[in-house]
Design a protein that fits this description.
This protein has 19 helices and 4 strands. The protein has about 550 residues and is mostly helical. The mean pLDDT is about 90. Strands 1-2 form a two-stranded antiparallel sheet.
Length: about 550
């Protein structure tokens, strides 16, 4: 049902987003145009001025810098701010810094438990604010990249940024929050409620303004939970209906953006082929994870005397199947929200979730995942052109040295941001790693944390002692490098493609809207991912799988 809904909404939602950013009329114009006009007027924004790549990059970096400082100030001052019913003090400076960087980069990696660390003001005015703006930043960069790739001016960041919020994120969030509220997700500024348990002891039940926080968390692929256990908490995700809605919310924008590209390029056939390629890989990873969870842990099954699904770390209301679907979806979309503990997944599930964060295109981060997909397409065109002796071209524009260099930067910065800090951490594992489960699984814990940071995902193999000065600062490095270096390279790549003179198609032109070329692209993606990260996969989940199978 979830996958069927996804396929059904992709062309509708993808066409709507294309209309918004192509300046076409939409049904929503009469509602949002007055609001946008006021924003442009107050901000002094010249809406018809298209930016160069340098101007777009400066606007992105400046905006994110200011927003990051603003939210850091809120978090570090929360003890003196209102909307703090439990009188929580400010967290340490390094935790506040990591949190601000994490949320401004659309990662939302959390080294804390929300209900016991942050006030309502920090959650709503700080993190909730960044959930909209960080998602809009990634989406705006992706749209600028698609424009340049298809021969159109890059556009104006301030306009794109505003329209991402007013026409996409905010309307869906308002409707979605009301739906979640109806289905049992709380929305209140009241403090925790004290109750008497059946044993007669007292207990405090945390609550808060959760419904609106939850919907943008999923839609914007943010992933940071209001509560420590995220969407496994019954106040964030109480039942099967909310689970279905939240899963679709996290998938809809990155999946539909592929179709949006097809409308921009005037080639929806290629869009469907690329969508199908990603969907098949996505489905394969779901089946791999689901089979591992359904078969269960052989060590536990030998004690029980019969096979049982692996239910450790899972909510009974979701079970093994919905947890497997969610785990692959949240690491595929770089959302990072969890409805079960990934640390308790079988090795097949850990392999799938790590693989998603390594390749970053199934479906990829908010906006940027689609851009990474087309970087892989450009590399596939270059490789194929070399193999068959044709000039590498994409959409009538030649792929030359500059494009390959920038595409290589996008591809290489990711392993640098993961493998180098991981190597340092593992070299001093006794002092700084905080591994709770030594051996192959412990290596996966460390690699997963940095992969999650560099991929702007935010989930983790919980159990890792990550609220330390080392983890807060080192993962902040991966957060920043994994977010902004690729963004700069993508915008420069888009401008380079825009400035090239298009050539008419000829008999020597390599067509990219064929099943054969799409298969080659899939091969390039899988081979590059395997060559770069296979050693750590072999030493982590693969080795752990063999160890469990042998009864070790």
């Amino acid at each position: 049902l979830t996958l069927g809904i996804l396929v059904a909404i992709v062309p509708v939602f993808g066409k709507y987003m294309a209309d918004v950013f192509l300046g076409q009329k939409t049904f929503f114009d009469p509602v949002v145009e007055p609001l946008e006009g006021l924003i442009y007027q107050l901000g002094g924004i010249r809406i018809r001025k298209s930016m160069t790549a340098g101007e777009y990059i400066r606007a992105v970096l400046f905006t994110n810098l200011v927003m990051g400082f603003f939210v850091y100030f809120i978090i570090i001052s929360q003890g003196n701010l209102p909307l703090n019913p439990t009188k929580l003090p400010a967290p340490s400076w390094d935790l506040a810094l990591h949190t601000a960087i994490s949320f401004v980069t659309n990662t939302d990696q959390q080294h804390y438990s929300g209900e016991t660390t942050l006030s309502y003001a920090s959650q709503m005015l700080g993190l909730g604010f960044l959930m909209f703006t960080s998602a809009a930043t990634g989406l705006a960069v992706a749209i600028a990249f698609i424009r340049g790739l298809t021969g159109k001016p890059l556009g104006n960041f301030w306009v794109d940024f505003t329209q991402c919020i007013t026409r996409i994120l905010l309307p869906i969030s308002i409707v979605g929050a009301i739906v979640l509220l109806v289905l049992g997700v709380p929305e209140t500024l009241a403090g925790p409620v004290q109750v008497t348990t059946l044993e007669g002891s007292g207990q405090f039940i945390a609550r808060g303004p959760v419904a609106h926080f939850e919907v943008i968390k999923q839609l914007g692929e943010n992933g940071g939970g209001f509560f420590g256990i995220n969407s496994a908490h019954p106040y964030e995700n109480p039942n099967a209906a909310t689970n279905l809605i939240e899963t679709v919310l996290m998938l809809c924008i990155p999946a539909a953006l592929i179709y949006t590209y097809g409308v921009f390029a005037g080639n929806t056939k290629q869009a469907w082929l690329l969508f199908g390629m990603v969907f098949i890989i996505y489905l394969g990873l779901i089946l791999m994870t689901a089979m591992g969870e359904y078969q269960g842990n052989p060590l536990v099954n030998s004690l029980l005397g019969e096979p049982q699904p692996n239910l450790e770390g899972k909510e009974v209301r979701f079970g093994w199947a919905q947890t497997a679907l969610w785990a692959v979806s949240t690491t595929g979309t770089m959302c990072g929200a969890v409805n079960g503990m990934h640390d308790s997944l079988m090795p097949a599930g850990i392999f799938a979730t790590l693989f998603n964060m390594f390749v970053q295109i199934i479906w990829g981060g908010q906006g940027t995942g689609t851009a990474y997909l087309f970087v892989n397409v450009i590399l596939a065109i270059f490789v194929t052109g070399l193999l068959v002796g044709r000039t590498p071209e994409f959409l009538g524009r030649k792929i030359e040295k500059q494009e390959i260099v920038l595409a290589s930067v996008v591809m290489l910065v990711h392993p640098i941001a993961i493998l180098i800090p991981s190597a340092i951490t593992l070299a001093f594992s006794q002092q700084i790693a905080g591994i709770s489960n030594p051996g192959f699984h412990g290596l996966s814990q460390v690699i997963y944390e940095y992969a999650s940071a560099a991929a702007n995902n935010g989930s983790g193999l919980e159990g890792l002692g990550d609220n330390t000065l080392w983890w807060n600062l080192s993962s902040s490095f991966s957060l920043l490098v994994g977010r902004y270096v690729p963004m700069v390279a993508l915008l420069l790549l888009a401008e380079g493609m825009l400035q090239k003179q298009p050539a008419s198609a000829s008999t020597g032109t390599l067509r990219t809207d064929t099943v054969l070329f799409t298969g080659v692209t899939a091969g390039v993606i899988l081979i590059l991912g395997a060559l770069t990260f296979f050693p750590v996969l072999a030493l982590g989940p693969i080795a752990e799988g063999f160890q469990i199978a042998k009864g070790g």
